[in-house]
Amino acid sequence: TFTPPAALVEIDNVEYHGAFDGGNVTHTFTVFVIVSRVSDRGAAQALSSYMSQPGTNSPSSISGAIEADQTLGGVVSTCFVEKSGPPAPITVVGGEVVYLAVPFTVIVHA
Fold first, then answer.
1. Please, are residues 35 and 101 in contact by the beta-carbon 8 Å criterion?
2. Has this prediction a pTM greater than 0.70?
3. pLDDT tens digits, residue range 68-87?
4. Cα-flanking dihedrals φ and ψ of residue 29, to 5°?
5. Do the Cβ atoms of 9 and 31 come closer than 8 Å?
6. C-alpha dist (Å) from residue 74 to 18, 71, 99
7. How many other C-beta atoms lie within 10 A of the C-beta of residue 51?
8. FRET partner for 4 with CA separation of 20 to 30 A, picked from 17, 36, 42, 57?
9. Is 41 helix (H, G, I), strand (E, B) or coil?
10. d(CA 108, CA 70)
11. Quick check: helix, strand or coil at residue 87?
12. How far is it, in rounded angstroms, from Cα 98 to Cα 78?
């Protein structure tokens, strides 16, 4: 079991040979942010803050958190959040509780 909010990361694909000599490998990830139970009153408001643009008025912005260090500590060339949404209900394996989640597509250039 877990207590939301939580994030689950799934690798979607890897594109090789984006440049000569096998450089510019591009990884595409989906980060599912599980907000709360669907029945929770604050679920929609929480989704709004997680999906907001980065800035001082949006400390919960997922894109802001990921893009705060676009080299991930110098490990990659760059990364960015391409898009988010649409929000959808999900059931986590082994559970009967329905949660509200939103997917974020993250592009990483290694």
1. yes
2. yes
3. 999 999 999 999 999 999 99
4. -120, 150
5. yes
6. 20, 5, 35
7. 20
8. 57
9. coil
10. 9
11. coil
12. 35
